[in-house]
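User: Structure please.
Assistant: Input sequence and predicted structure:
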Amino acid sequence: MTTRLDVPTVSQAAYETLHRMILSGQFVPGQWIKEREITEILGISRTPVRDALRMLERERLLVSIPHRGFRIPVPTVKELHDYYELRAELEGMAARLASERATDSDIQTLNNLWESAQSSLLAHDVTTLAERNDEFHRHLAACTDNDELVASLLRLRAGIDLYRNLSWAQKPRPAHTLQQHQHILFCVTNRNALAAQESARVHIMDSLSIALQGLATFQSNSGAK
């Protein structure tokens, strides 16, 4: 199936399309991204595809191997620990501040995002579910009105979202994620800042433990060391 993109925004649109495909798990860790195949999928020339691939490399969603091309990275155990430990603290801070600063409209938006994610789970729509998951965390951070915190989480989340596929491959995880989001939302709604902070921190560290299981399973299935 070919998806045609408008010329004026072709590089950016190619980047956004590939970004969604990677984060929704349509490409797996270790998979090579072949430029020619991407041009055929998107129905565009190679130049904007190369631009998009470079943009994804800068976000560390792809790695460039000299003379071979681009590949979806496979995380190490240390990388997983580093990412999730830092994010746990930042997301906990975001949940605490959101409990103190979110408006009623903000909380309603969080609730709408959670309900949309729940509907996507029931419909087995993994792509939309992943998008709503990201939007929930982005809006939670935005509720803090702390621009530096929002920017820090945005930079960190690209790597986390890539590795999330390792945990979501564990079948109960998406449903459990929504349960944990619901509890964070409950704490924020009730302005319980410390409970919200701990709930968010536990949610991220729980994701770490499941991502480590997913990495071990991936390595076992692929024969990776």
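The mean pLDDT is 88.
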